[in-house]
Write a structure and sequence with these properties.
Nucleotidyltransferase, domain 5; alpha/beta; 41% helix; five-stranded mixed β-sheet
Length: 158
């Protein structure tokens, strides 16, 4: 029986999952490995305007042959949605329309706090920590999503 995976010699990569931690100034990015097991950070997008931000996302989506996107959903600690969550719902809908890939919203309530805590435990300077916290939060969002796929947490997609 033939394999459904493309042979590496043909130069085609397996599609990957992109994780986003979207803020008002930066978008932290993470990408899954080809098997969908681990998340690795990518360079953070420094937001300028919607057109440029979407063009940068498109570049990443094409480069990594992204087949799905996971966006952190900033819920209140109670689990309720506030204004930031509503903004992410709109952003996710725009991404779905623009790139025609499945977009999942993932509860990110503790990802930034966890990222900051992990980074404080390193010898990294405060300035450098600030530069990578969005990337680390995106990695945590995506890693939690990938872990769920193998039997864990809850996806809050609509």
């Amino acid at each position: 029986m033939p394999s459904c995976e493309t042979h590496p010699a043909e130069g085609r990569r397996k599609p990957r999952i992109l994780g986003l931690d979207v803020g008002s100034k930066r978008i932290g990015l993470a990408i899954s490995d080809p098997l969908g097991i681990t998340a690795q950070g990518l360079e953070t997008i420094h937001r300028q305007n919607k057109r440029r931000d979407l063009a940068e996302l498109e570049r990443v989506i094409r480069r990594y042959d992204v087949s799905e996107i996971v966006i952190g959903l900033p819920l209140r600690m109670s689990g309720a949605e506030g204004t930031q969550a509503a903004k992410m719902q709109g952003f996710a809908e725009e991404i779905r329309r623009r790139f025609t890939v499945p977009v999942h919203l993932w509860d990110e309530r503790l990802s930034s706090a966890q990222a900051n805590r992990l980074l404080r435990e390193t010898d990294m300077s405060i300035k450098r920590r600030g530069a990578v916290v969005d990337q680390m939060a995106a990695v945590l969002i995506l890693q939690n999503f990938l872990d769920m796929r193998t039997g864990g947490s809850m996806d809050v997609s609509h």
